[in-house]
From TrEMBL:
This is ATP synthase gamma chain. Its main location: membrane. It is found in: Cell membrane; Membrane. Belongs to the ATPase gamma chain family. One of its GO terms (cellular component) is plasma membrane. GO terms for biological process: proton motive force-driven plasma membrane ATP synthesis. Pfam families: ATP-synt (PF00231). GO terms for molecular function: ATP binding; hydrolase activity; proton-transporting ATP synthase activity, rotational mechanism. Keywords: ATP synthesis, Cell membrane, CF(1), Hydrogen ion transport, Hydrolase, Ion transport, Membrane, Transport. Produces ATP from ADP in the presence of a proton gradient across the membrane. The gamma chain is believed to be important in regulating ATPase activity and the flow of protons through the CF(0) complex. F-type ATPases have 2 components, CF(1) - the catalytic core - and CF(0) - the membrane proton channel. CF(1) has five subunits: alpha(3), beta(3), gamma(1), delta(1), epsilon(1). CF(0) has three main subunits: a, b and c. It is a peripheral membrane protein.
Amino acid sequence: MANLRDVRLRMRAIEQTLQVTKAMKLISTAKLRKGRKMLMDTEPYFKRIKKSMFDIFSGTSTINSDFFRRKNPPNSPHTAIVVINSDKGLAGGYNANIFRQVNDLCTRVKNPALVLVGSIGFRYFTHSTHVILENFSFHSQIPTVEHAGEIAEYLVSQYLWGMFDDIHIVYTYMFNAIKMVPVEWQIMPLNMEQIQKELTEIGLAKREGLRFEYLPSVEAVFDVLVPQYIKGVVYGALVEAYASEQNARMTAMDEASKSAEDMLDELRISYNRARQAGITQEMSEIIGGSSAL
């Protein structure tokens, strides 16, 4: 009977684990929906910022802006890599895929230095040979425009001060519920051809037939828009990464729940077999005792 007791205890432990994995799956599903809604609510504003930048650029013969030029500062990191990962685990290969992408990028750029968003990435890269410029750790895991603004302000100020002359951002993009891929792209210096391509894809690249006068100057207005654009890029990356993380965790918890249910089925069979064997043995002993009498 000791074997039966052990099986019952193991079944109870797995049932408790199953309750946790199912609850985490439901929570991740709700957070995924919330994250996608957050992006949809703010996307029109940042698209308009991008559109305004393009209109100024395409309607002006020359723009003398530091945001188009590499600084090439001496004795300082040349390439900043913004790494967006998670604060929690239990998300399958979500973080490992990001780390692999970052390590690969670091071999392809000059003097890489990391700007980390997420505590797991900070713990991982602290034990690596990579230079860490800054680590952003927010108490609330849900990304906000304020969080993006804090990161963007740091990036823009350090870029203008000459701390680095390139900024790349690495995060996970969720194409659909099945396909999530780590992506990286350069956000500074500005690449207006890339911005035009993005606007063309959403039908906003065509210039309006109006002529605008920019005061106090074209450069001044443009330089005000760029930090807002960077904030929009960072916020979009934060929300995409957040949605991808929740989707990865939801998938991982679903797989864990299925594995737990399979283990429970096997244990129930083992329990019933052991119980039946015990009953059969008891009956045999009773019959044997009766025959002896």
